[in-house]
Amino acid sequence: MVGNLGLVVFTRDKRIRSRPAEAELVVAAGIRGFVLTSAGDLSTWATLSLLVRQWDALERYLTEHPTGPWLAALTNQGVRPLRIRGSKELGRD
What we know:
Helix content: 25-40%
Strand order of the largest sheet: 1-2-3-4
Strand content: 15-25%
Number of strands: 4
Structural class: alpha/beta
Distance between the termini: 27 Å
Number of domains: 1
Shape: globular
């Protein structure tokens, strides 16, 4: 549903891209998603703070990558693309 509506997923699941079943679901649904990959578990406040600090980078990435499927890491340093393992549709691995 999220992919069909053109919405963006935010997750803390750092292993989503390496689990074959989940990676294929990302691809099949055309998901555009940001994975919060900061070390340790972020509190709700720390997560909100990260999103606010990186908001411009998020918007820039979305503008440059308007269609999915893709996953990108969201860290204190900014946004970077993530490889989705086992995804032939994306030309990865």
